[in-house]
Each structure stands twice: as structure tokens, then as C-alpha cells.
Amino acid sequence: MTAPTFHSVADAERLAAERLAPDVRDFVSGGAGDEVTLAANRAAFDRVSVVPRSLVDVSGHDTGRELFGAWSSMPLAIAPMAYQRLVHPDGESGVARAAAAAGVPNVLCMLSAEPIEDVAAAGGPHWLQLYWLKDRQVVADLLRRAEGVGCRAVVLTVDVPLMGRRVRDLRNGFALPPDVRPVNIGGDVGERRAGDSAVARHTSAVFDPSLKWRDLDWIRERTRLPLVLKGILHPEDARRAVESGVDGLVVSNHGGRQLDGAVPSLDALPDVVDAVGGRCRVLLDSGVRTGVDVLRALALGADAVLLGRPVLWGLAAAGRQGVAAVLDVIRQEFETALRLAGCRDVEDARRLRTVRA
């Protein structure tokens, strides 16, 4: 396939929409409930203006930063996203190869259609994302396997005690095709029922909604890897997480796919950053679409962002090459925005002032 030319992430989104089946397109792009939070995530970015600095020598600049022991070419990692092979045969391995080539970390998703060993073999720094499962042995095995493939961190998603009510999937009676399965944990996600979601049924069967703070100790006893909690929005939860010794947080409302009506992640970010007080890394996801969005998140205190749906749009549009093209667009946009804002590096960006409309 010829490498695509994207001038913006929106170009990839349009091409992906043409190539995906309607129910798959809805699964990727949809949110929970009336999708109020899904829309609010994007609106939150549009309300933030950055105040550039002037008369700064930006002839030399550096867009990279260290994230959990590895250097990233941008303050960005690929978000964990389930069943990437659903949108293109290149799947998780294709995304991983594009991330490695771009020099950014890739978060291996527990709900992957490929074994984490195969995805990690693509190279580059990678982290493992986990959900809290009823079968603890599966979780323990995944932690062991994560260390075996050289993961640099464990990202525990804490905002899915049960799956949000995703109306598009219910209307479509969404289920996975026979060649896409949660190979790392097992289970049936392929039985199609009218008015029901096979993905939600699988979640209900295998996820444990009893996750508590003391369960973090169980994870620490089974891995030496840094622990990151994904799905933190309340500053008190952020403070307690730091006190419990976590190494990082992801301020996230799951891309608007869990609690509809939840605060936009970007709006929650400054209070979480204040609560953390520099004691651990703070990342952000949900709504990031451009390199300017990356700059906005940094200016509001984030150390880095996770990029989600744009990666899937690139994958759907043109496989691994499409992901590479999306990452290149974000890189160009971020580098341009960084320099136009009078910043020489990521830390300069984190000292920028912002104005909210």
C-alpha cells in the first residue's frame, strides 16, 4: 500500500470512515450515553489558548523527554486500545512498529488480538496495560510476561469496574469477527445479539468491579515495574495515589467511553497536577487530536499525553504506514507549535501561561 499523505489527523479520520464497516466505525469513534463527555473532551481543548513567549532563540530545540526510563522523541505514548486488528490486518504489531520507528512508547493493551510477546517483538519501548480481573492468576501471569518482554511500566486502568453504556454498540448488536479475540485472557466476544454488546458481556464476565486501593499492594508484590494508574480525575484520588507510592497517573475519562457527564480530562488536569505536587509523572488522554493539543496539555502541567483514536484512524486508513503518517503529522504540528510558542524544549512548554475562554 502506498504511504498516505495526511496534512492533519482529520484527513486520517475521513479516510478511516470510508474504509471501516459502520458498526466498527461506531465502536472506534463512539462514546457512552449521549456522548456528552466525548464532545466535551474536544471542546475543553478548544477553550484553552496558550500565551506565547517572544524573542526566544528557537533555532535549537528538543521535542523529546524521558518517560519511565526510556527516551521518547515526543512527550507522547500510544494509548492502550482494544482489538486493533479489528480495523486493519496490521493490527497491534503494525501500531507497535510505527511507534518504534517514531521513537515513542507503545502501551500494550491487555485486550489485544495478538499476544503481547508478538507485539513487543516489534521493538521500541513498551508498557503493559491491565484491567483488574476476577481471575487473579491471569493478572499475575500477565505481569510475569510483561517483565519477560521488557515492559518498562504497568498501566492499571482503574475506571472500568463495568463498561459504560455505549449506545451505538447496543444499537448495532456489536460483536467481534472470528479472527479477533482477546488472546491474552481468553473469552468469547463473537456472539452477536440484537440490542446487546458482546464486548460489554465479556467485560461483565471477566472484570472484577471490587478493585480497591489495597489491591495495589497485590500488584506491587508481583512486579518490580513502575506502576501507573489510568483513569484518575479527582485530586483527592491523585493525592492518595501518590501517597500509596504509584509512579505515574493518567488523567483520563476513557475517551468519553465510561461515565457520560464526567469532567473533561483537560479540565481535571490542573487540579490533579497541583495535588501531585511533582511527586510522580502525570499524563493525560481523551481528546488529543493535534500537536497543538500536546502543547496545551503540557502548558497545563502534563508531563506527556497518550494518543488514542487518531492512531486507530491511521491504522484503518492505511495500516502501519497510516499510523506512521499520523504520528508524523503530530510531530510536525508539535514541533512547530513548540517553537512558535517561544519554547526550546518540553520543560519550557510546561512553564507557558494559558487563558481559558
UniProtKB/TrEMBL annotation:
Cofactor: FMN
Entry binding sites for FMN: 80-82, 129, 157, 230, 252, 285-289, 308-309
Gene Ontology MF: a single term: oxidoreductase activity, acting on CH-OH group of donors
Family classification: Belongs to the FMN-dependent alpha-hydroxy acid dehydrogenase family.
Entry protein name: 4-hydroxymandelate oxidase
Residues bound to glyoxylate: 131, 166, 254, 257
InterPro entries: Aldolase_TIM, Alpha-hydoxy_acid_DH_FMN, FMN-dep_DH, FMN_HAD, FMN_hydac_DH_AS
Highest taxon of source: Bacteria
Residue ranges crossing the lipid bilayer per the database entry: none
Keywords: Flavoprotein, FMN, Oxidoreductase
